[in-house]
Amino acid sequence: MLRPASPSYNPIVRLARDIRSELAARGAYPPGPTNFDLERTRRWTQDALPLVLSMYERYGSIFSMRIFHTRIVVMLGPEANQFVTVDHPEKFSWREGNLGDLHPLLGDGLLTIDGEYHRRSRRIMLPAFRREQLSNVVHVMVEEAARAVAMFRPADRVDVYAWARKLTMRVFLRALAGLNPDEGGKGAILAEHFERALAIYGMDVPPRLLRGPGTPWSRMMASRRVLDEIVYEEIRRRRRRPGSGKIDILSLLVEAKDEDGSTLSDEEVRDELMTLMFAGHDTSTSTIAFMLYELARNPHVLARIVDEQDRVLRGNPPTADQIMKGELRELEQALAETLRLYPAAWIGPRRSVEAFTFGGQPVPKDVYVYYCSWASHRLPHIFPDPDSFRPERFEPEAKKKLPPGAYVPFGGGSRTCIGMRFGQLEIQVVLTMLLQRFRMELVPGYRLAVRQMPTLSPTHGMPMTVRPRAGTRQVTSTAAESGALRP
Fold first, then answer.
1. What percent of the chain has pLDDT over 90?
2. Which CATH number fits domain 11-482: 3.30.70.2740, 3.30.70.100, 3.40.50.2300, 1.10.630.10?
């Protein structure tokens, strides 16, 4: 199957296309402000939640507004989310939406491809994320969490966002790429240059548009070349030794086959690995930090989680079965509520590939369309008292009453995050290993500010103070102690 053509990286070309599309639409947009407003544009890029909710209150579940040089369409609420992700995904392109901006780093991975090419890639990759495969890598999560928690001492002040970022990167290197982060060399270089390359997507728009030597773009592309050298070398090494028994995700992708016997090319494997690295590392890091923040502010929820852990685990590390079978229900519900309040992928950018109507409002072809899980999760008629942290919203009976599309932290339909179970498992392992030994306390005076790009994350980190749990003992993995397990 032919790879799709690369989207244009030239900002002038993209600007011209956006202007042509708007002129061709002849005003057939949902209601909303049509003038350029610098403050509205700033809020969209830095403080979108109150902006989108205020527009929803005024215009309803679909509206338009001018951001930068073009009019965008925003769809909000369960019906809108369901329309975009499940009922009519054929009306939208991810690649031609703003996710195309990720193509220079990620290439043609699941986040940036559409149609039959996407369906084929997802079909080939799915076996690597089945329950039995996740059970094979949970020991890596346990070992790395135990190692990271062992660094803490009572009264330490720790930026748990930075701490979680290092931890999830180590898990990625071992479980997904099969690299040992302690041997220096490739693992350390891969981690360093991925963070360097990713930095461009956390910047404001103007610097991202610059091209030429010394710009963020040139630094990102230089790091991409280093990443490619390492990843392609690892792919070739696995091609030379098929059936080696390695259980990391990269090895599984190299050996995966479609129903007709076709495999992923080296370039396709590279692109999917980079996509998994982006989608998993950043999102898990932020969710761990946000969850610790909410547990520190809601000690009654923390107490229920700790009591459950003591009862179910009896001081032992969690197993994949215990987590995936819902034996740690309090923890699972707290995670679900954290993702409701802070969905890492807070916005679903698309471009319409055909004109359509939703809620009685016309949407033209070839315009940017966004569904917003962050704002949808804060609608009070769906989630009463929406700004409060209430994990009981996700008790089994309460969850059944939610309308389709109400809760979409991982997207929906054929675009549901393929690594959803991996990420949920990793976060629950990390939180369990930490809370079995310590409780985390917010630093006095800390006020949470949220950065939106590339995913929701705390703008100024998450400084917390380490406090011991009374009567706890060190929780370790027998295999980790013996050194029997290797990446």
1. 77
2. 1.10.630.10
